[in-house]
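chain below, 457 aa
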Amino acid sequence: MAKEQHSQWADILKRRIANVKNDERSDEEKKSEETDLFTKYYTEWRGGVETGESYKSIPRFYYKLPADDEVLLQKLREESRAVFLQRKSRELLDNEELQNLWFLLDKNQVPPVSGDEAMINYEAYLQVGEKAGPKCRKFFTARVYTKLLNNDPYGRISIMQFFNYVMRKVWLHQTRIGLSLYDVAGQGYLRESDLENYILELIPTLPQLDGLEKSFYSFYVCTAVRKFFFFLDPLRTGKIKIQDILACSFLDDLLELRDEELSKESQESNWFSAPSSLRVYGQYLNLDKDHNGMLSKDELSRYGTATLTSVFLDRVFQECLTYDGEMDYKTYLDFVLALENRKEPAALQYIFKLLDMENQGYLNVFSLNYFFRDIQEQMKLHSQEPVSFQDVKDEIFDMVKPKDPYKITLQDLVNSCQGDTVVSILIDLNGFWTYENREVLVANENDGSNTAELDIT
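prediction:
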């Protein structure tokens, strides 16, 4: 075969040499033809496609979004996405199919029963997978089975754990499809207005919110949406990835309100519950003494135990969005989320930005002293002996253990797991008092005694 190809190439070259004498083309034209011929014959010899045609084998992976004035293309894209999502929704298990799956699993359980748990081995697991239908096939894999193995001496898995796994997967896909319907841009993220529409239309499906007045819906939606954006959009881009919404626990908390038997304690600890949202909004109204719908610095100073320092509040109004020097409800919600969740990185980032006055990316001794001086002044006003800043500074650096012994970065605060304590010492007299008296408070708790907050009267 190689000899025949060699002979063919030799004949071609001989003909080329014979025609060179009668060729009146320029050197550039000859060189171009030589290149084309070489490419052609070399590609044929390799058994491939000519490079000039290779682009035809590359699938298209980028489709430009329609412009704002291309209404027809936008509508076509919207309709095609809706059809695609409907098709994906039909691929999910419905209630009847889930019930049938549970019946098959229960019918094929393998003894002995482990405690109260019905179990199934791998052979029976595969048999159920064959009977359950094509929609279930993706759940009956060796990978899923091994993931659910839990030290059973017979190598079995719990039927209930497997069924809960399937239910969770179906729920995630249903929720992903539901959220994607509100993704107007079709790019895998939701803007603030998209998430507001999603939650607004979700309210009638949540029994725990049945008692909410419709006039309060807009405030409830604002309260709910702010938690998503405060924690999932730290760079304040105005959009959140749907994937991030699914990965966090906030949606679980929101959909927990479907439970008609939700306990009072669970409602109070759930940011999205009616009592919680009414509490936050009620606090805002109580602070708004002049009833203009906004909060001034003086009004905000009465927040919580009214012990936030004046210099910290100054920084809040310098850095946060205000209107003629006053704070609206949305900005107030960010403030509340930061102060009520001081252990969380997003909350520490919010407060750190306020403490980092010169936007240097770190706190130094000067920064710490600047904020702690106001704590010392408040202690004097309450007839308390001011604590030495030098002592407090040393304790803060000992708690944080920053990489640079003279600078504390946001990452240092997060890594130390003491960030909430540090910021409380610097911005809140009651927080500092709690830290200073921590040993007494712990002793009183062990004794069952009631502990009072700092007396500021």
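Residues 16 and 292 are 93 Å apart (CA to CA). The chain has a mean pLDDT of 88.
thats it, cya
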